[in-house]
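Q: I'm writing up a methods section and want to include an example of the input and output format. Could you take the sequence below and give the corresponding predicted structure tokens, formatted cleanly so I can copy it straight into the document?
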Amino acid sequence: MSLPRLQAVALTLSAPGATRDDDREALLAAVVSATGRDGSVVRAGRVCPHCGGTDHGRPWAEADGCAVGVSLARTSGVLAIAVAPDVVGVDVERVSRVAAAPLDVFTAGERTRAEGDVRALAACWAVKEAVLKRDGRGLRVDPVSVDVDLARGVAVLDGRPQPVTVLYPEDDVVVAVAAGGLPVSGGA
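A: Here is the clean output for your methods example:
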């Protein structure tokens, strides 16, 4: 069975739950909303691709037995959930937190293109995390190996350009979505 309603990335931003179980419930609700399926046919969980553990790792979801791409990220006060027809990566960051952190993860090109703009550097960091989540290797890959060009809406990983979407829903919040160029709805 296919999921004809899901043809773009549905992005949901909310306050994070008190527990990871609350965030899982938010993920289930986002899948129900994006797919139009009844909650009784939606399942979700986590699995670590490296050790197989289900108490951590990448989130997954199914609706009516069909895999749905999901990704989840949180920062202080914000939970971001992306639901897509295929593999997706999302990250959310507070610009102020990235500006305060001594991150040594930016390429020379990113630093030049950012021209000292901390919002641009925060966006680059969010894009790197989103792309690496979509890739499946996460931060097992050195973030410097991802080169982000915000003006072009592209991040290059392993020599391959990957389209990304960057949103600024609040002055201090940046959200990055890596979904192979699919349009992104919601989140603003």
